[in-house]
Amino acid sequence: MWCQSCKDEYEEEDAGTCKECYEEASETEEELKREIDDLRSRLLFLRLPSPTLDAASAPHSDLLLHAIPSCSSSGAGGDGDAARAPDTPAVPAHRVILTSRSPVFRAMLENEMEESRSGIIKIYDVSYDVLRAFVHYMYTAEALLDEQMASDLLVLSEKYEVKHLKAYCEKFITSKVNNDNAIAHYTFAHRHSAKQLLEASLSVLMDNMATLADRDEYKELVEKDPRLVVEIYEAYLNRQVNTAAGKDRL
Amino acid sequence: MWCQSCKDEYEEEDAGTCKECYEEASETEEELKREIDDLRSRLLFLRLPSPTLDAASAPHSDLLLHAIPSCSSSGAGGDGDAARAPDTPAVPAHRVILTSRSPVFRAMLENEMEESRSGIIKIYDVSYDVLRAFVHYMYTAEALLDEQMASDLLVLSEKYEVKHLKAYCEKFITSKVNNDNAIAHYTFAHRHSAKQLLEASLSVLMDNMATLADRDEYKELVEKDPRLVVEIYEAYLNRQVNTAAGKDRL
Prior knowledge:
- Chains A, B: Residues 80-147 form the BTB domain.
- The structure is a homodimer.
- By secondary structure, chain A is mainly alpha-helical.
- Chain A folds into 3 domains: 16-46; 51-74 and 81-175, Potassium Channel Kv1.1, Chain A (2-Layer Sandwich), CATH 3.30.710; 177-250, Alpha Horseshoe (Serine Threonine Protein Phosphatase 5, Tetratricopeptide repeat).
- Helices cover 58% and strands 7% of the residues of chain A.
- The first copy, chain A, contains 12 helices and 4 strands, in the order E-H-E-E-H-H-H-E-H-H-H-H-H-H-H-H.
- The first copy, chain A, has helices at 19-46, 95-101, 103-109, 114-118, 128-140, 147-159, 163-174, 182-191, 195-207, 209-212, 216-224, 226-249, and strands at 15-18, 63-68, 91-93, 120-124.
- In chain A, strands 3-2-4 form a 3-stranded mixed beta sheet.
- In chain A, helix 5 crosses helix 6 (147-159).
- The longest helix of chain A has 28 residues, at 19-46.
- The first copy, chain A, is flat and about 75 Å long.
- Residues 72-83 of chain A have low confidence and may be disordered.
- The interface between A and B is large, with 53 and 53 residues.
- Strand 1 (15-18) of chain A pairs antiparallel with strand 1 of chain B.
């Protein structure tokens, strides 16, 4: 008989669906594609022009955000200058957007806090580029990520409770977990309550227990935060017990 | 053989797909559904709280919109009061939202026009309810439509060049075209350059040419705008010629 989809001939044992189900499935696919088109067009409509591109793209802005990098990331000159804000421009933004995306900005701007009066918000421990990407996401739901940017944006979105961005970054980082970076990601995930990333990195660590203790990062972690190391061993033991119980049942 | 989708038995002549195509189609469907989930979650993120619900839902608003109904729709008392704005509240809004959705608002608010200075915009020939629905759409890309609301919003979105809303309303009205309302929709579509609605209503009119001339709306249209009637006849003749040519080719 002949397949209605690929038009190839096939034997009875290679049969997939009956004609009715094939037709229904094609209709479903068409419907899903129409829904995707509709959602995309609504997204394009709701997307706002990002105020981070140039000054002219932020008319009517009523906020200025200043990135204040942490001492360590702005150069460890040690002459006291490191704590000062470097000479980067402020990122313009709008109260209506920031308050609708982040409960932290909402609390800050809808109460009589200094930031609300002055319209100037200092964002600490963050570089200018990360702040720009953060604001850009608030307007467009889009971000261009690499691992470093995803980590920095995850930290910032956790601080300002922008859940959607945090989930987006976590998904990206989770897709990059491998044996070389699993300890680093495991520690990071713990610190920032990133459950999906925690599970993925823990799973990679458990698959490579034989070499775990040889790694420098492992030794560092034992020094710095031994409880996290204990949790790896506990999870590993737990898995072994469960696997053994599973085998017993067979 | 057995269908892998509905699990029913079927005969060889009722075969739909081979196994490989069935599996691919299932994967495609899963992928499309994941894409829909992702788009929906981005939409939810980008959607803004509508400022039309109550005053408290529009903090940081920097505009007030006033609906000024046309004389005819605000009651034909004829005592001169009809032209005054009725006692409805103003609808609050934000410059950043309105300018990003409508080139007309953009031109109005980014130049030194009276509206830009005062922050007060009068929207003429529109009821309070339609203005609220219009502003609501600017923030949410959502509207609750019936035929009247869809027509009113289409007119308003044409005036302010909010293409997305115009297309949304046109699609809704097009789905409601029937023999009873086809002349009215045909005239409306002409007046507001609604191509999809024009084609749909013209098609219904051509399917019912025998009874067209008996209708009151037809007689009115001949009086008011005979060119539109000529266009119906031209389209009808054109279709007859094409159908005849098609038959000749067979």
